[in-house]
Amino acid sequence: MREYSPDLTPQWKRPKPVPEVPADTDLVVEVAGTDFCGAVVACEAGTVTLEDRFGKRRVFPLEPRGFLLEGAVVTLTRPSRAPAAPLRTASGSVAVPGARARVARAGRIYVEGRHDAELVERVWGDDLRIEGVVVEYLEGIDDLPAVVAEFAPTADARLGVLVDHLVPGSKESRIAASVTSSDVLIVGHPYVDVWQAVKPSALGITAWPVIPPGQDWKTGVCRALGWPENTGAAWQHILSRVSSYKDLEPVLLGRVEELIDFVTA
Fold first, then answer.
1. 173: buried, middle or exposed (CB in 10 Å: 19+, 13-18, 0-12)?
2. Which residue numbers in the chain have pLDDT < 50?
3. Tens of pLDDT, residues 32-58
4. Residue 11's pLDDT is what?
5. Half-sphere exposure of 139 (CA within 13 A, CB side)
6. Contact (CB, 8 A) for 40 and 57
7. Beta strands 134-137 and 184-188, pairing class
8. What is the reported pLDDT for 161?
9. Strand order in the sheet with 72-77
10. pLDDT at 86
11. Region Disordered: which residues (predicted)?
12. pLDDT of residue 220
């Protein structure tokens, strides 16, 4: 057994305790015994990294009484917790707390139906308000060429259009091809309806059911999944299970982001 050995150093010769200060990011300290002064940029594995005003970085051990804070000796310690990650919007963008909605731009994003508009609002609503982008729905795109002509897009008032079932050879693809303005961007997803853009896993199902041609697709989905044949209520259930971009298929995410970039360029 190790014998106890009392500290016989006179009290007046013992070093006085010094404050312990967490090495939080951007804390500015001097290194005791040197002329190096810098801000904390990292603290890990018993060391702290400081950056001086010229951008030079050096690593120092977290030794007791090893630093000066405003001229007073201190002991730096690791921060009690890591800095909080920035808040994110439902689309994954960095949130801007307290930001006011921007005055609406002249440009617009058109989507086919109300369900499309509600889904875009649920995931990208915060981003759209900051950018001043208004989303409207068309109730189908059969009259898209006339709608575009009436809108009269320009370089300062661009128009983006999101189309369901935009696949080669479809009616939708033929209508989209008839619009040739360089101030209009028409993109789409391959799904029969925007319902399918919600990942099955978000709804607790393995896959969206395949509905034979000739049947109303939404009604067929309700029947196949054992839901009441109320497509409005079914959609509200689907929408309630979407909390962020992670609940949507990548093919829709990419198209909506493309439209936002286009009308805000």
1. middle
2. 1
3. 988 899 999 888 878 899 988 877 889
4. 56
5. 0
6. no
7. unpaired
8. 97
9. 20-22, 72-77, 67-69, 28-31, 37-44, 47-51, 57-61
10. 60
11. 1-20
12. 96
- pLDDT tens, 204-242? 999 999 999 889 999 999 999 999 999 999 999 999 999
Q: Determine contact, residues 95/86, Cβ cutoff 8 Å.
A: yes
Count of Cβ atoms closer than 10 Å to residue 227 Cβ: 15
Residue 55: per-residue pLDDT: 79
Q: CA-CA distance, 201 to 193, in Å (whole number)?
A: 17
Q: Which two tokens stand for residue 188?
A: 């789409």
Task: Give residue 84's pLDDT.
Answer: 58
What's the per-residue H, E or C state across the chain?
CCCCCCCCCCHHHCCCCCCEEECCCCCEEEECCCCCEEEEEEEECCEEEEECCCCCEEEEECCCCCEEECCEEEEEECCCCCCCCCCECCCCCECCCCCCCCCCCCCEEEECCHHHHHHHHHHHHHHHHHHCCEEEECCCCCCHHHHHHHHCCECCECEEEEECCCCCCCHHHHHHHCCCCCCEEEEECCCCCHHHHECHHHHCCCCCCCCCCCCCHHHHHHHHHCCCCCHHHHHHHHHHCCCCHHHECHHHHHHHHHHHHHHHC
Please count the other Cβ atoms lying within 10 Å of the Cβ belonging to residue 103. Answer: 6
